[in-house]
Amino acid sequence: EVQLVESGGGLVQAGGSLRLSCAASGDTFDDYAIGWFRQAPGKKREGVSCMGSSTYYTDSVKGRFTISSDNAKNTVYLQMNSLKPEDTAVYYCGIATPKRGRCIGKMLIPLEIGLWGRGTQVTVSS
After folding, report:
1. pLDDT on residue 104
2. How many angstroms separate the Cα of 57 from the Cα of each of 61, 65, 72?
3. CA–CA gap between residue 122 and residue 6 (Å, rounded)
């Protein structure tokens, strides 16, 4: 069965960097849209970045985070630089079929995601 597995989270000081990976097994991303989301304690899951037909970044991470992919490895990355304590959250990747959602000038929303990974914890200390 198809699975998404996030990795690369951890504890980092403010101003530091992490690179998250989302590896897909059992399938390829082909024409799916892929998104990174995060959920902090007591808050709703929010979109961070997506890629597909285009790429998108939510305002709070623009200029600091970069989404990329390596299709040969069936892996999507989220390079996170200049991390802030408010970036602390569990980060999830998810994929959407073209019928369900597309990353075209806007962020994917959680309802558009058909398959989620289990998340990786990112903690940014001050």
Report:
1. 93
2. 6, 8, 24
3. 11
DSSP class of 98: T
Low pLDDT (below 50) residues in the chain? none
Helix (H) / strand (E) containing 54: none
Instruction: Write down the pLDDT at residue 27.
Output: 64
Q: Copy the structure tokens of residue 12.
A: 């980092």
How confident is the model at residue 28, as a pLDDT?
63
Q: Which of 34, 122, 39 is nearest to 83 (CA)?
A: 122
In whole angstroms, give the CA distance from residue 23 to residue 28: 10
Return the bridge partners of 31, or none. Answer: none
Instruction: Compute the residue count for the chain.
Output: 126
Q: What is the model's pLDDT at position 72?
A: 85
Which residues, including other chains, have CB under 8 Å from residue 94's CB and lie 6 or more apart?
4, 34, 35, 37, 108, 110, 113, 114, 115, 116, 117
pLDDT for 122: 98
CA distance 116 to 96: 10
